[in-house]
Design goal:
43% of the residues lie in helices and 19% in strands. By secondary structure, the protein is α/β, with parallel strands linked by helices.
């Protein structure tokens, strides 16, 4: 999938909500200081190194404010950029350019930050047959865009929500009466096309999940030595996902254990935004 998992209508609604939050009944500063007839041109200037994601969202911000604004991307989505690179140009009536500046930058900086961090982690494990995947630890309302940015950075998506995959976690296991009971109950009601994953914390849990017929097993906060033993025990009979406390500092050690997936919540929940500014001048 190359685009975000939301329709044009849904994207526009998301952008409209962001604009309404920022503008409210009107942009007091711009309306007071900038004559209505003023025209301007501006550039989105990168002040850091990273991977670009979200240019199309910027374009929608200005299009919804004023169709007369012209937005032209100067780099492609997913491009690697450096300090001083021009990411896009805008031109047209100055008022909507100024009013939309912060919302456009907020989307672009945040999504590019996700793509940048993802790309960095993917590069670290390039010598291993493992995938870096995201989680559901996303900003409310922005999940589709954030998961899109992970893909732009070279990562992969875990389940999108509670509705498109079964992940039996510790609380489910306790409430269901054990791993076997939980897997059996899930298998009885979900379609055969849906995978069932079980979260475990030790090797006994790995063996129980495997015996219960789990399609995938999530190794939660396991030390690398235990992960390697889990890989040996499973021997390819289930997909193995490592999760919990994984950072750039330890991701290579985790990948070297032989797991299939490494899920990293920090790709979306605590990412550093890419430093981008909009520089504007009057025509």
């Amino acid at each position: 999938m190359n685009g975000p998992l939301l329709s044009t209508w849904a994207l526009d609604e998301l952008v409209r909500r962001a604009l309404e939050e920022d503008i409210g009944p009107g942009d007091l500063t711009t309306m007071a200081t900038v004559p209505e007839a003023t025209r301007a041109t501006g550039v989105f200037l990168c002040k850091d190194e990273g991977v670009v994601a979200g240019l199309f969202v910027c374009a929608r911000v200005f299009a919804l404010l004023d169709p007369a604004v012209r937005f032209a991307a100067r780099v492609a989505e997913g491009a690697s950029v450096k300090r001083g690179d021009v990411l896009a140009e805008v031109s047209g009536p100055a008022r909507p350019l100024l009013t939309g500046e912060r919302v456009a930058l907020n989307f672009l900086r945040h999504l590019s930050g996700i793509a940048t961090r993802t790309a960095r982690m993917v590069a670290l494990v390039k010598d291993y047959p493992v995938r870096i995947v995201d989680t559901r630890k996303t900003t409310p309302g922005l999940r589709a865009l954030e998961k899109y940015a992970v893909r732009i950075g070279g990562g992969y998506n875990h389940r999108f929500g509670l509705y498109d995959g079964v992940l039996i976690k510790d609380n489910h296991i306790r409430a269901a009466g054990g791993i076997r009971a939980a897997v059996r109950a899930a298998r009885a009601v979900v379609p055969h096309t849906v995978k069932i994953e079980v979260e475990v914390e030790d090797l006994a849990g790995v063996e129980e999940a495997l015996a219960a017929g789990a399609d995938a097993i999530l190794l939660d906060n396991m030390p690398p030595a235990m992960m390697r033993e889990a890989v040996r025990l499973v021997a390819g009979r289930a997909v193995l996902e490592a999760s919990g406390g994984i950072t750039e500092a330890n991701v290579v050690e985790v990948a070297a254990t032989g797991v299939d997936l490494v899920s990293v919540g920090a790709l979306t929940h605590s990412v550093k935004a890419l430093d981008v500014s909009m520089e504007l001048w009057e025509e």
